[in-house]
Write a structure and sequence with these properties.
Layout: E1 14-19, E2 26-31, E3 34-40, H1 42-45, H2 55-65, E4 74-77, H3 85-95, H4 99-113, H5 115-123, H6 127-132, E5 134-136, H7 139-148, E6 155-165, E7 168-176, E8 179-187, H8 192-202, H9 211-218, H10 226-229, E9 233-235, E10 241-243, E11 257-258, E12 265-266, H11 272-278, H12 290-318, E13 322-326, H13 333-342, E14 347-349, H14 359-371, H15 391-400, H16 402-407, E15 411-414, H17 418-430, E16 435-438, E17 452-456, H18 463-472, E18 481-485, H19 489-492, E19 504-507, E20 525-531, H20 537-550, E21 554-559, H21 570-579, E22 584-587, E23 590-593
Parallel strand pairs: 1-4, 4-5, 6-13, 13-14, 16-22, 18-20
Antiparallel strand pairs: 1-2, 2-3, 6-7, 7-8, 9-10, 11-12, 15-23, 16-17, 17-21, 18-21, 19-20, 22-23
């Protein structure tokens, strides 16, 4: 097991890592191999999965780290436009994709190549100075680095599974101390992630990143179409696989993808042959029928078969018991919770921004550990790497809305004592109040981990429908997650391990399902989030007090938002609180009650 050695006196460097002109644009900042800040551009732009140049994220990282732009020594971007050029050319000659695909990818490559100039201008630096410290880090090595170099493992099998990045969809690797050795790759146009995307779109979920909705829907159906879907993807020896390209159009140029500033937009990537196989596609505004639930269940089942096929083969290659997993497919928390059951791996590490946002993290650590040859000296044990706001800033935000708060008869007061704040909030939740909880540093990744969360009583069977209909305004089939104290997890979940990043699903013990019905999915599972006082003292205190009051140290935890990115600033928390039917807002030590 890897253990950070603590402060060292070696000469270091400051590295800025960025993911740009791809979904989930982001930036991170390292100082001598230690993570100082990690943020996603969507939180500033208020557009989910924002793609483009992450200027606000870069500025936030520098502010959090207390560094000037002139103090940055290295610049790492998780793209390499020159990667696999011969393979790309051979594919184009063999398949003759239409001009739209070629132009689409060429435009994106032009944006990426302009990054050194754009970054120099943004930071007020000389372009030559930026180019001198510039590193192009290929997309998949960045994914691999993002999980291994920040993991707690001295040695591990490492895998990245996603849609595509720099012409690769799946990477197999082995990590040992500071070395990361690539073992095998699977290239465009074959992709497990693309397979899941195609069926997600077929089911009427057309927004970028909607795959998680299908994962939730899958629990409601039976995998009656699994045999049909296996025709779309063929598993091969050694962890390989191939798509039947007749069912897809991403490779022929009939599906464009837009990665410029704004929300990523993807045309349908499935061909008419898929509708001949499964019947008419569901339109986004059409009702969800049992057939759609069965197709979602079948997709999840076949996706799991393919994922475990890859992971078992990786274990065969490495004979290592620890796994580090990254890529967009690593956000499938149902698969993640089954890895120790379905493969020989005994320990699993997935950092909270496993999708493309995390490639900024990986690019920076790839430069520090791999290219600079520095020994590992950091392990990620929490996800709180974003901006935070002082009590004065929160009070200023409240004063700016004083008139509106008064008109809504909202009571505002400050509870100075932390213990009293936790006891008071726990009592409000136990009485059925829905609480917006805004504390400390913003989370890194897609999950609200107790700093930008909406919290409620998990014992109330009606609470899930209440929040979905009155606060989140989203599909009724989507579940909420349970947060619990780390030491209490085994009391409620079977075969679980601590998971501070809320990225694995486990079965809830049968005798506990009636105790916490609001956080249990229809199949009896829950996406576990474990909390300890070392990494989040305040949230652990709230869980402890709720447990003392009710006998149940579990809270319903969902992201603090309403069909938008998770709130970033106190002003955004106030906006969300006032336009929804939340009952209480806890902003730092200030409490607002309607």
């Amino acid at each position: 097991m890897f253990r950070p050695s603590g402060p060292r006196s070696v000469a270091g460097m400051n590295i800025l890592g960025i993911n740009a002109y791809h979904g989930d644009a982001s930036a991170v900042l390292l100082e001598e191999g230690k993570l100082l800040a990690a943020v996603e551009e969507e939180r500033f732009k208020r557009v989910k999965h924002w793609a483009g140049f992450p200027c606000d994220s870069i500025r936030a990282c520098l502010e959090i780290g207390g560094l000037k732009a002139s103090e940055i020594d290295g610049f790492a971007v998780s793209r390499n436009p020159s990667a696999h050029l011969l393979r790309k050319a051979a594919f184009a000659l063999a398949h003759r994709p239409n001009l739209a695909l070629v132009e689409n990818r060429a435009e994106n490559a032009r944006h990426v190549r302009e990054l050194p100039r754009l970054l120099a201008k943004e930071l007020g630096l000389n372009e030559e100075r930026v180019k001198k410290g510039w590193h192009w880090v290929e997309h998949h090595p960045a994914h691999l680095a993002s999980c291994f170099y920040v993991s707690p493992f001295e040695e591990a099998a490492v895998c990245a599974i996603d849609g595509f990045g720099d012409f690769v969809s799946t990477s197999f690797a082995a990590g040992k101390k500071d070395e990361l050795t690539l073992l095998k790759r699977i290239y465009f146009p074959h992709s497990i992630g693309l397979f899941y995307l195609a069926l997600t779109q077929y089911l009427g979920f057309m927004k970028y990143g909607d795959e998680y909705k299908v994962m939730g829907l899958a629990a409601y159906g039976s995998p009656d179409y699994a045999g049909s879907l296996r025709k779309l993807i063929r598993l091969k020896p050694g962890g390989g696989f191939e798509l039947d390209l007749a069912y897809f159009c991403h490779w022929s140029g009939d599906a464009s993808m837009t990665w410029s500033s704004g929300e990523p937009v993807l045309d349908p990537v499935f061909s008419p042959k898929l509708e001949k196989l499964l019947g008419p596609r569901r339109r986004p505004d059409a009702p969800i029928e049992p057939r759609h639930e069965a197709i979602a269940a079948s997709l999840q089942a076949v996706f799991e078969e393919a994922s475990f096929h890859v992971l078992r083969s990786l274990h065969d290659m490495t004979r290592l018991d620890c796994l580090c997993l990254a890529g967009g497919c690593a956000m499938n928390s149902v698969v993640n919770g089954k890895i120790r059951e379905k493969t020989p791996f005994r320990e699993v590490f997935i950092q909270p921004a496993a999708a493309d946002n995390g490639t900024a993290l990986g690019a920076a650590f790839y430069v520090w550990n791999r290219l600079q040859g520095r020994p590992r000296d950091f392990a990620m044990d929490h996800g709180y790497w974003g901006p935070e706001f002082s009590s004065d800033q929160i009070e200023t935000a409240l004063l700016g809305r004083r008139q509106e708060l008064d008109s809504r008869a909202c009571r505002v007061r400050k509870i100075e004592d932390e213990n009293e704040l936790c006891r008071w909030t726990a009592a409000e939740i136990a009485q059925g109040e829905i609480v917006g909880w805004f504390q400390g540093r913003m989370e890194w990744g897609a999950r609200a981990l107790g700093n930008r969360s909406i919290l409620a009583d998990p014992r109330r069977a009606d609470m899930r429908d209440l929040i979905n209909s009155k606060i989140k305004f989203r599909e009724k089939f989507r579940p909420f997650a349970p947060s619990t104290l780390e030491e209490s997890a085994s009391e409620y979940f079977t075969n679980s391990v601590p998971d501070p990043f809320m990225i694995q699903v486990y079965a809830v013990r049968p005798e506990k399902r009636a105790v916490i019905p609001a956080v249990i999915h229809v199949d009896g599972s829950g996406r576990l989030h474990t909390v300890n006082s070392k990494t989040n003292r305040l949230y652990a205190g709230l869980l402890t007090d709720f447990g003392k009051l009710t006998g149940v140290p579990v809270l319903l935890n969902t992201s603090f938002n309403e069909n938008e990115p998770i709130v970033h600033k106190p002003e955004e928390a106030l906006d969300c609180f006032l336009r929804t039917e939340m009952d209480v807002l806890v902003l730092g030590h200030f409490v607002v009650q309607k």
